[in-house]
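Session log. Operator J.P. requested a structure for one protein chain; no other inputs attached. Running the standard single-chain path with C-alpha cell output.
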Amino acid sequence: MITIQSVSKSFHKQKVLDDISLTIERGEIFGLLGPSGAGKTTLIRLITGAEKRDSGEIFVDAVSVPDRKVLQRIGFMPQNDALYTDITGFENLRFFGGLFGLHGAVLKEKISECLQLVDLSQDAKKPVSNYSGGMKKRLSLAAALIHSPDVLVLDEPTVGIDPVLRRKIWEEFDRQRNSGKTIIVTTHVMDEIQYCDRAGLIYEGKLIACDTVEQLRKMGKGSVENLFFFTKQGENDL
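Structure written below.
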C-alpha cells in the first residue's frame, strides 16, 4: 500500500531522516517507534505530502505523493491539535466532514459514530476552547476518521488519553484494519507496539529495524526496547 524508497530529509543542514526504505502492506497496523526527535513525525509528514522530501520516492497505492486524489484517501491526525477552538466539537467535525464531501444524513451519522468512539458525545456542543488537552486529542482522532479513509496516519494518537479509552481506541484500530484499512501509528510508548502487526524502529533519523513485533522481540533478546540500547552502544549483532 505504501512504499518508501531511499528517503532523506534535512532541516537547516541537519539530517532528520537518512536513507529510509520500507514497505507498509495494505490492511495492517504499522507502528513507527522511536524516542522524541527520532524523525517519526517528519516521516509521516512526508507520507501525507505536508513536507517535501530531499531525495527518494514515496508511493501510496502505486501513486507518487504528494497527489491531491491520494490525499483524499488519507486520514491524518497531527501531533499538535489542528482544531478550531472558537466553535464546538460537533461543528469541527461537520466542517472537516464537509471538506471530504460528506453532507446531510450521512455526515450526521458519521459525526455521531466518531464522537461515540472517542467518548465525546456528551461534550459535542461545548466550544473546543473549553476542552482539556486529552479531549482535543480525541476530537483530532475523530476528525481523522470522519471520512472513512483507506489509510490512517496517526501521530501519537493516544497521548493524554486514559488507559481505558486508549484500549477502546486500539480496539477500533483493529476493527479498521480488519476491514482492509491501512494504519500507521507513531508512538514512543513501548507497550503500544504489541498492538501492531509490524513495526519500524527509528533512531536518530535511521531505520534500525523493521519486522513483525515477535521477530523484533527476538532480535532484542526478549524486548523491542533493547534494540535502541544495542544501537546506542554500537552493537553489530542486529
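Operator note: The chain has a mean pLDDT of 90.
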